[in-house]
Amino acid sequence: MANINPRPVKIMDTTLRDAHQSLIATRMTTEQILPIVSKMDKVGFHALEVWGGATFDACLRFLKEDPWERLRKIKDQAPNTPLQMLFRGQNILGYRHYADDVVEYFVQKSVANGINIIRIFDALNDMRNLQTAVKAANKEKAHAQVAISYTISDVHTIDYYVGLAKEIEEMGANSICIKDMAGLLVPYRAAELVSALKEAVPTLPIQLHTHYTSGVAAMTYMKAIEAGCDIIDTAMSPLAMGTSQPATEVLVKTFEGTPYDTGINSEALSEITEYFRPIRQEALASGLMSTKVLEVDINTLRYQVPGGMLSNLVSQLKEQNAEDKYYEVLKEIPRVRADFGYLPLVTPTSQIVGTQAVLNVLAGERYKMVSKESKGIVRGEYGQTPVPISDEIVKKIIGDEKRITCRPADLLEPELDKLEKEMAMYKQQDEDVLSYALFPQVATDFFKYREAQQTKVDMQVADTKNAAYPV
Amino acid sequence: MANINPRPVKIMDTTLRDAHQSLIATRMTTEQILPIVSKMDKVGFHALEVWGGATFDACLRFLKEDPWERLRKIKDQAPNTPLQMLFRGQNILGYRHYADDVVEYFVQKSVANGINIIRIFDALNDMRNLQTAVKAANKEKAHAQVAISYTISDVHTIDYYVGLAKEIEEMGANSICIKDMAGLLVPYRAAELVSALKEAVPTLPIQLHTHYTSGVAAMTYMKAIEAGCDIIDTAMSPLAMGTSQPATEVLVKTFEGTPYDTGINSEALSEITEYFRPIRQEALASGLMSTKVLEVDINTLRYQVPGGMLSNLVSQLKEQNAEDKYYEVLKEIPRVRADFGYLPLVTPTSQIVGTQAVLNVLAGERYKMVSKESKGIVRGEYGQTPVPISDEIVKKIIGDEKRITCRPADLLEPELDKLEKEMAMYKQQDEDVLSYALFPQVATDFFKYREAQQTKVDMQVADTKNAAYPV
Ligand SMILES: [Co+2]
Ligand SMILES: [Co+2]
């Protein structure tokens, strides 16, 4: 081994974002996070993923926490390691397309509050949906990483991904991530893909993100690294594997003494492992972590669809007393996908394709019943599909309705001013308008809760100190 | 990939032996096993590991089953796939050295009842402890596989293992297994080791056996296979990973379409997966399977000792109110190991070394207190240590006592006749004497139970059919 030139692998630790999002419904609190951050900051990670994805929504909705405050507190404890967030293109962290002024302001405030690396992706890989965020990140001098949603279909060839990589380079991204959210990327395929991308865009670092769902993840990292992958995403072992990432400690040890040695000291990790172990144990004991998420999902390997999609199907069919149609629906899925321009199967497209497949089978005639979301896809509301949808399908689904061919956000008026007005009465910091923009109802509830807490605290202060209300 | 010559990997499935031994305390019953065996027989596995190890003891002691009957029933359902057992050299499946006549008779009866491949190993890698079993297997025309107990120490170099492999070849073994019971073998080391063994003994197939305990197992298989490993041991996913083997479905899928393609049809596996899934779920629900065994054990990676060994230490220290001595004991372990000729740390040597390290630390003086088992090791009762123990240590531990330098079993008189006499009153089949030889008390209890059951059944027959006792 000693003869080969060293090519150290960089490690991005996801424990504080994707790992708990994947295993314990994003329920890790800031209080649980903070005591260990300064130790994680000293390890020498490439970055810590600590924000974005579902954490923003979970903070406001379930934990009654201000996500911006979480970010600032983490930054305080981690001055040395770049902080990373996951950003869903024009959806930001929400569930619709937002106007550019919201996207730009969100990026600006994320960076101002501590984010260094923004990983930006789009469910359809419509690169137009990433432009605004990438440009904004460039402007804020953050690292703009564009993530390709990895999927398997007849059109998702190596050449297709190489084409995307070149677009990403042109767009001004600083690195590329292959984002395999379902664990579909098998090891030798990963080697092929990474080699091709490194050749196509040799100056951009390539990062690989996968989940252990189907059981291949660690092997996939290994083959990717041997093929030239620069950075891998891992999680501390108590929150690793299953539907989460491979374990940080394991990958660090695996490459120790090889040309890929991460340079991370295993001993520095052990205290962090011990910190997270009781969090795992409590989550298992309370049922917050189900043992289901720790199991190998062979359906992912068999049907090349995300694990969660099939359990959704089963529930849908059960509700209709049509469980016997399961295998028919399974066969219908790739057909719907082909009809819909070979969508990647990720949130929300996996639900849209799955539901339409169920409707096609149950109605006994394809597209006799069509969901609102299916119409949205065909209308172009989500952006461009990987290949164009045939005229025949368009006709069948939306008839002669007008289709959107531009970038969907081009149709949106600036909306920040209006949002500011709507929520002015709750505003305590500039960032509050962004929380409100993404989740109007949930943010409003949080703002009210926050005020009530403050009043309560103030009341206590008032009671105990000088029997007067502070202003 | 298509340009490389195909070199299909063979898969040995451990679900019915090691997997349930590792995850659910060897408690799978014959009733649970039988309904799925004929399906497993049709998959095209290299072999099914179904017997030996702890299953024999568990059948008699906990399940009140006759292990021989289990073997015959499995054979009935699996006429096409070789059946494999794990055989602990001169210990057979028990906890002491047995005379050669017992070893020979056990091999003969194992083969007669359905075993095709006997994997034979010794905790100390003293090849003399394997001779009798290997010769007996040769005589019975079974496949004799010798397993090397893999461990890490200053003397366990690649050259050391190459030396063992050559001894194994000379001994007349049909294949070699690298048996990494603790999950210590990291991926790139596995590649080195397998390459060296393939070069040293090119005619013998090399099989790799590891456990997922430390989280590297699947990667270790991958690097071993790329380096020339012929056969890997895996378990069906519901009983895989954690302290068990990597998942069969996952490895099959990983090599699909590569030069290492196993040729196994993934679809043929899915029904088997579904069969074992409820067994996993019930075991988790009842607590028979602890979520502890599913966790990555980073101590294995950190201290290069088997996971279970450290939890034993903690208990021992707790009992003595000396938990603060933990790190002192951890440092003492490699010193005791060196003193004792660099024993591999497996059952029973891991317990012996661990306990002696505790005694050395608690007594405040090394070898002031010495366990009976430590004396046994130094006396040579277990066989030869990897390197000789120094005169100084010998003197300190056993003074001028006589040491055994021959093969321990050479000191044992034939014992079958005596055993036959002792248990004659219980005998219902030839094999019963072997059950009695290995576990005299447990087998006697089982024989009594068996008789009681038979009498009860007879009583019922008598009652319901013709009011007379059958003879
Ligand atoms: Co993810
Ligand atoms: Co084993």
Topology (elements, then pairings):
Two copies of one chain form a homodimer.
Chain A: E1 10-13, H1 15-23, H2 30-41, E2 47-52, H3 55-63, H4 67-77, E3 83-87, H5 100-112, E4 117-121, H6 131-139, E5 143-149, H7 158-171, E6 175-180, H8 187-200, E7 206-210, H9 217-226, E8 231-234, H10 248-255, H11 266-286, H12 298-303, H13 307-319, H14 326-339, H15 349-362, H16 372-379, H17 391-398, H18 416-423, H19 432-438, H20 440-466
Parallel strand pairs in A: 1-2, 1-8, 2-3, 3-4, 4-5, 5-6, 6-7, 7-8
Helix pairs in contact in A: 2-4, 2-11, 5-6, 7-8, 8-9, 13-15, 14-15, 16-17, 18-19, 19-20
Bound molecules: cobalt (II) ion (2 copies).
EC number (chains A, B): 6.4.1.1
Protein name (chains A, B): Pyruvate carboxylase
Domain Pyruvate carboxyltransferase (chains A, B): 9-270
Care to describe what's here?
Chain A is an alpha/beta fold. The first copy, chain A, has 2 domains: 10-286, Alpha-Beta Barrel (TIM Barrel); 305-405, Orthogonal Bundle (Cyclin A, domain 1). In chain A, 50% of the residues lie in helices and 9% in strands. Chain A has helices at residues 15-23, 30-41, 55-63, 67-77, 100-112, 131-139, 158-171, 187-200, 217-226, 248-255, 266-286, 298-303, 307-319, 326-339, 349-362, 372-379, 391-398, 416-423, 432-438, 440-466, and strands at 10-13, 47-52, 83-87, 117-121, 143-149, 175-180, 206-210, 231-234. Chain A has an 8-stranded parallel barrel, surrounded by 7 helices. In chain A, helix 2 packs parallel to helix 4, helix 2 (30-41) packs antiparallel against helix 11 (266-286) and helix 5 packs parallel to helix 6 (131-139). Chains A and B meet through helix 9, helix 10, helix 11 and helix 12 of A and helix 9, helix 10, helix 11 and helix 12 of B. Bound molecules: cobalt (II) ion (CO) (2 copies). Chains A, B: Residues 9-270 form the Pyruvate carboxyltransferase domain.
